[in-house]
């Protein structure tokens, strides 16, 4: 019986996709038929189908080819994929991701704890191409990727606001479809991804927002972190002017679809946060005069007592609970997040992801040089100018 369906959209990405498909082989704890993989090809002309056909697979596999049309978009590809899914839960992966052998097992563990979840996980950004043989042998995972040089933007943001997403003001803003999962029944209820978004960005933020409005918990699972294969994009690289323009148009579309967003998160605040790289403060709760409680989990046997402490403190107003998890129990991080948006904020930090603030500051200063910031400012001005021109002709 298929429990989990993995949907992978692709376009002219055969080499990276082959690595992704190989990494999904022989997932721990699952016999053949326990999960399936569905590739939806949005009109590739690089012989993708024949190339991936040579990769042996240990799971049921579907391949669907779509002709590119004026209606082609990221949402449409994913909607075709999940509509073909036979599993109770649907995971979405991009075709440049490599997952560990415990990926599906970790995902199943989340849904066994609470079936009605939107689960997201982050990426480690690789700096060089990956050979298929290294994926097949598992050598790709012999390196420690929990280092500053491999982290993605959400890792850095979580250093500030914690890895406890439900306590945020806008947890839906952390939803990226490159590595996420939810029940198929919820996708059916929502009607899937919104297909009015064209080009790059916001279709995954949109579905995160709608799941949040339905009352679903949005949680982060560190056990599902994946490797993002290098193909000319790494942390700190600036988006192209075209991507920025498409993203800006899609933000406009989202605010048009959901007028209440203007009250929940004014668009100027969103633009300001991105322009100044202050997304994390935008998401954090802003309560004052709180009693700070610093707690640490150092031994597994202390977990029941610590849980009782956290539950009591978070149920009362006026506290800020900062938890450092040195054990990184398989269930503790999920337990904290399933407490939801508690009266007092809980900031949760697994020790292996926590870095010295000064070290982070130095690293970010190297990544975001003055030259890059100047280019970003220039592109921002071009974007504002094009937006002004569009508003003039839209009158």
TrEMBL record:
Official protein name in the record: Glycosyltransferase family 2 protein
EC number(s) per entry: 2.4.-.-
Keyword entries, A-Z: Glycosyltransferase, Transferase
TM segment ranges: none
Species of provenance: Cohnella boryungensis
Every Glycosyltransferase 2-like domain range: 5-123
A GO term, aspect molecular function: glycosyltransferase activity
Domain of life: Bacteria
Start and end residues of each Galactosyltransferase C-terminal domain: 166-223
CDD domains linked to this entry: Glyco_tranf_GTA_type
Pfam families in the record: Glyco_transf_7C, Glycos_transf_2
């Amino acid at each position: 019986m298929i429990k989990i369906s993995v949907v992978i959209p692709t376009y002219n990405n055969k080499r990276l996709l082959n690595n992704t498909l190989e990494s999904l082989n022989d997932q721990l704890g699952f016999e053949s038929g326990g999960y399936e993989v569905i590739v939806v090809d949005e009109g590739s002309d690089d012989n993708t189908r024949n190339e991936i056909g040579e990769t042996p697979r240990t799971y049921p596999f579907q391949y669907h080819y779509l002709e590119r049309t004026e209606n082609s978009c990221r949402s449409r590809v994913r909607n075709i994929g999940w509509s073909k899914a036979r599993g109770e839960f649907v995971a979405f992966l991009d075709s440049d991701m490599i997952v560990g052998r415990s990926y599906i097992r970790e995902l199943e563990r989340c849904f066994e704890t609470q079936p009605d979840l939107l689960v997201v996980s982050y990426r480690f950004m690789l700096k060089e191409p990956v050979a298929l043989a290294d994926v097949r042998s598992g050598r790709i995972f012999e390196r420690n990727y929990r280092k500053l040089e491999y982290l993605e933007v959400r890792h850095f943001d979580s250093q500030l606001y914690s890895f406890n997403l439900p306590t945020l003001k806008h947890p839906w803003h952390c939803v990226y479809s490159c590595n996420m999962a939810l029940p198929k029944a919820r996708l059916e209820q929502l009607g899937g991804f919104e297909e009015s978004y064209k080009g790059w960005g916001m279709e995954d933020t949109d579905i995160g927002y709608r799941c949040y409005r339905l009352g679903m918990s949005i949680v982060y699972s560190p056990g599902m972190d994946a490797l993002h294969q290098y193909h000319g994009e790494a942390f700190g690289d600036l988006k192209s002017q075209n991507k920025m323009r498409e993203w800006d148009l899609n933000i406009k579309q989202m605010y048009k679809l959901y007028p209440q967003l203007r009250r929940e998160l004014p668009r100027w605040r969103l633009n300001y946060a991105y322009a100044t790289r202050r997304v994390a403060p935008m998401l954090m709760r802003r309560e004052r005069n709180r009693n700070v409680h610093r707690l640490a989990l150092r031994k597994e046997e202390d977990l029941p007592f610590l849980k009782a402490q956290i539950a009591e403190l978070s149920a009362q107003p006026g506290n800020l609970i900062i938890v450092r998890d040195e054990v990184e129990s398989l269930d503790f991080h999920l337990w904290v997040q399933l407490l939801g948006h508690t009266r007092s904020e809980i900031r949760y930090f697994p020790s292996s992801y926590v870095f010295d603030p000064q070290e982070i500051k130095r690293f970010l200063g190297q990544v975001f040089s003055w030259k890059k910031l100047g280019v970003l400012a220039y592109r921002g001005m071009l974007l504002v100018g094009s937006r002004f021109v569009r508003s003039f002709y839209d009158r």
